[in-house]
Amino acid sequence: MKKLFIVAIAALGFTFGAQAQEGFGAGVNLGIPMGDLDDFYGFNAGVDVQYLGAVSETFYAGGTIGYSHYFGKTYDAGPGIEIEQEDIQFLPIAAVAKFMITEDFSVGTDLGYALGLKEDVDGGFYYRPKLGYRIADSIELNLSYAGISLEDDINASTFNIGFMFQL
Question: CA-based angle 31:101:147, to the nearest 5?
Fold first, then answer.
């Protein structure tokens, strides 16, 4: 698992370093856990770096790597029993596709795998459909739904708002 992580980081680092001027970006986002996790986690925060290359005038493709942190909360587990949920973290590694609907609006998705960074948390299939609106030449506001399909049919999902900064 650690070897896979190191190889993935190195491969993405070489890709980003070699072609950074063509579409390198960094982003931050905040999310609200939904579905299977909303009782156990209060909110989510994440960061991403990505590279997008132009396939056509309106379609871009590339890769992304990020960090996603789910903040645990105290929940009621029965009469007089409260449990404090531990935080969990993931490292999403994904392919990115982005289509410009207009000069300022875009739709896209990230598809890949999110590595669990806590010893007892496995990773899973990662998906993140996104809507974007360019608010300045190099800043995009985006809304997204991120999901990680975990074992036992558990879906770690969040509704996110964030910013992507083109470098």
Answer: 25
Using alpha carbons only, how large is the chain's radius of gyration in Å? 17
Do the beta carbons of residue 106 and residue 129 sit within 8 Å? Answer: no
Element of type H or E holding 71: strand 59-72
- How wide is the angle at C-alpha 137 spanned by C-alphas 132 and 142, nearest 5°? 15
Convert the pLDDT of each residue in 59-95 to its tens digit: 999 999 999 999 999 988 889 899 999 999 999 999 9
Query: Torsion-angle region of residue 55: left (phi > 0), alpha (psi -120 to 50) or beta?
Result: alpha
Burial class (CB in 10 A: 0-12, 13-18, 19+), 149: middle
